[in-house]
Amino acid sequence: MTDKRTIIFTGAIIGILAAYLIHLGNPGNMGICVACFIRDIAGGMGLHRAEVVQNIRPEIIGFIFGALIISLLNKEFKSRGGSSPFVRFIIGMFVMIGALVFLGCPLRMVLRLSGGDLTAIAGFLGFASGIIIGTQFIKKGFSLGKAHDQNPINGYILPVIAIILLSLRILNPEFIFLSESGPGSAFAPIIIALIAGLIVGVLSQKSRICMVGGIRDIYLIKDPHLFNGFIAIFVFGLIFNFAFGNFNLGFEGQIAAHNDFIWNFLGMLLAGFGSVLLGGCPLRQTILAGEGNTDSAVTFLGLLVGGAISHNFGLAGAPSGVGTNAKVAVIIGIIMVTLIGSLNIYFNSIKYSQKGEISHGA
Amino acid sequence: MAHKTIDTRGRSCPEPVVMTKQALTKITDGQITVLINEEVAKENVTRFVESSGCEVEVKKNEEEYKLLITKG
Q: Which structural domains are found in chain B, ordered by start?
């Protein structure tokens, strides 16, 4: 299969599986959401106590394992890291805070649009704006530095944690939380959710699908390759949401969404801005973490902690709207990511003018 | 003719492409060599270089790639 066919096929399968998972019980107008599901895992572990969003989601475990298995098979599994892990953790946290004000990661944003949720248009515009801003930083010299090969054990730790989490979800001991109402209580059968996650994990690793990369590459190098996946998710999500009777066109009454244009826009601006500096959307980070990239594993932990903070401090959006705490958090997030980006460029410029980055001669 | 070598090893996406693009804009014709140690970066840089009308020759040495890019 050519690269182009692989990414379109991946997008199509994600769109179809998301619609199918809604049909089988996953939250409506969602199906698959990396940010929401990592937030639910934080809740399931008791890292936050918002009772309606607690569930150790098998889909995320499937993403990590799908990426691990296929990368071992195609010999792309490589334990590597050391490219500004703490900065990645902090940016990951802010990406999550921004995404949860909008109520969804970039993937769910596309899926919301494919379900007829027009409130996601503000999110899309903010997301694209954030990516354009972040890309300017990259053009000006933003870099988180080089990653280095690591002892392979580093790359296997997150998948082991994922297996433990899956066991806890299945055994459901008393210290693990599972929502009895709200989005966390809406889920497809565990085995189907896990298989769906595995399929998405394998295909996403093969195709390198990335919601951030799609828009970034069009803007940066006029390359629509990754955006093909974005379009395929939308088109196939749309077709199958129609087929399952889950298409609901409009701004009002959308499930797990609100219609506050400004904060949908700014929340996703923060998510897009942060993700472009990280080099990929939350889905891409999760897949990279599965194939041994410990910088992405640290980013995953940042997303997890961001999900916990969002609900402990009342920062997440809600169908009723966006609270003051959420607005303050998004503004702080945009300022923090801007400062990190600007100071990174400044310090890089000093370092490179001393050492030189491009060597001359054959 | 100056021949630049750009070391993108260890750089995360999209830096290898950006570094290649910036190096190519600085020359009107000639060759540059790009060192890469990521499959994804090799795919991205190759796709970018080919879409910009340059020729690219990929050499694989164990886990690393050396891309010889010819412009003009």
A: 2-71 (3.30.110.40)
